[in-house]
Amino acid sequence: MLSNELKLLVGLGNPGSEYNKTRHNVGFMVLEEIARKNNCNFRESKKLFGRTCEYGIGIEKTRLLMPNTFMNDSGKSVRSAKDWFNFENHQLIVLVDDMDLPLGKIRVRSKGSSGGHNGLKSIIKHLGTAEFKRLKIGIGPPSVDQKERKSKTVSHVLGRFSKEEFKILNFIIEEIIICIESITSNNWEKVTTRLNSYKPENK
User: Fold this and answer.
1) Distance CA 128, CA 122 (A)
2) Cα–Cα distance for residue pair 107/98, rounded to 1 Å
3) CB count in 10 Å sphere of residue 2
């Protein structure tokens, strides 16, 4: 379980049924599965500009947040949650899609640039720092050709996973949840190493 060193998990995505299960919403998908496993029901929170739920008690309490602000303004929701729950930046993990990573790969970082991702860019802006944990989930690029990749980026990230891709994604989500549930205040490096070296074919 999460210790009091980690108070909030944020999944990035776009609200609305038309974006459900799209590649850009993979952060939402992880949180939805965590909520399902813990019988945690999301509810709307106007003051946090998103949907939230929580499970556990005391220092083991875990809060989940899915911003309703659309990807480009995710930081507004994250900053509101930080202020409301009074936690520090190091107590936050953001789960986000990454087109630069092939499907099936995970990258965990404790800080860094947005990498061109509008959701991370917004969070960095609203928090005033790039020093927060992020867990990047590979969705793969639409093409290896740079010109074609650029023209197909929007349709790719807003497109849905194929059946074969879903099989790989389910392994990834399962691994992420196992690792998140094992996090304590002193094993972040161990969890990072495990996730960064994970390969679905090892299942």
Assistant:
1) 10
2) 9
3) 22
For the segment 6-42, what is each residue's pLDDT rounded down to a tens digit? Answer: 789 999 999 999 999 999 999 999 999 999 999 999 9
Which two tokens mark 105? 């790969």
User: Looking at domain 8-202, does it have CATH number 3.40.50.1470?
Assistant: yes
Residue 155 sits at the vertex; the CA angle it makes with 154 and 159, to the nearest 5 degrees, is 120
Task: Give the whole-angstrom CA distance, residue 15 versus residue 67.
Answer: 8
Structure tokens at 192: 């990072």
111: tokens are 């800080």
Instruction: Kindly list the catalytic residues.
Output: 24
What residues contact 31, with CB distance under 8 A and at least 6 apart?
9, 11, 64, 65, 66, 95
Contact (CB, 8 A) for 202 and 194 = no
The residue ranking higher by pLDDT, 16 or 3, is 16
The residues facing 52 across adjacent strands are 43, 65
Is residue 158's pLDDT more than 80? yes
Domain ranges of the chain: 8-202
Q: Which residue has the higher pLDDT, 38 or 186?
A: 38
The whole-number pLDDT of residue 81 equals 96
- What confidence score (pLDDT) does residue 183 get? 83
Question: Of 27, 26, 51, nearest to 40 (Cα)?
Answer: 51
